[in-house]
Design a protein that fits this description.
Helix content is 74%, strand content 0%. By secondary structure, it is mostly helical.
Length: 259
Amino acid sequence: MSGNYTCEELVALMARLRGAQGCPWDKEQTHKSLRRYLIEEAYETVDAIDANDPEHLKEELGDLLLQIVFHAQIASEAGRFDIQDVVEGIVTKIVRRHPHIFGETKVSCARDVIVKWEEIKSKEKNEVSAIAGIPKSFPALIYAYKLQSKAARVGFDWEDVEGALDKIVEEADELKRAKKGEGLIEDEIGDLFFAMVNVARHLDVDPELALHGTCKKFERRFRYMEEKAETRGERLPDLTLKQKDKLWDEAKDRERYKR
């Protein structure tokens, strides 16, 4: 096989890998066994986006597409659906949820589109609750953000970010009391995270991306500390906390000057 492949050839390739003379590993896979690979490929795709690397993004989108074709092939073998059903389903859904493009509905801004999308989605799924339809497997920060966003659409929200900021102070105080035995510490930490997500939402910041960025920043600075200590003939674990703090400040200053 060489060059200029089509989506149909990708589907045929997967069918061959799963066929009688196919790959032993591919033939053993199930929807459940592939679950973690689907998640991993999605995160690797996000990494490529964050790195602003088109070639890497192209590769990762291919890996993600392979997972979709893989799941469709498994379903096809079981007589449930195939890749064509998947394509027809998403095209039908997109057309239905864009009545301002394919129908007579009028919208004035992107927010109107989101509101209309949620209205149509809720009717499709016959959802009674305003907060229904959020996958329980979402990472906790995304789960919290989605819950708050849906609740806000029916008016259950702070009027502005100041109220959300005050809630952080309130939850921090409750955590301090819990430390003294006046409450469940895990519950109060969860409440504090939830309150911080609310502030992020009011400021139009994705909390998952914000925390991920901070984690990368911490990793970058910590590695600098290790490398700097090594160039001085020292080991980071052997340094005092004061010495480590000094290296940390060096790492921060170094990044500040680079901006």
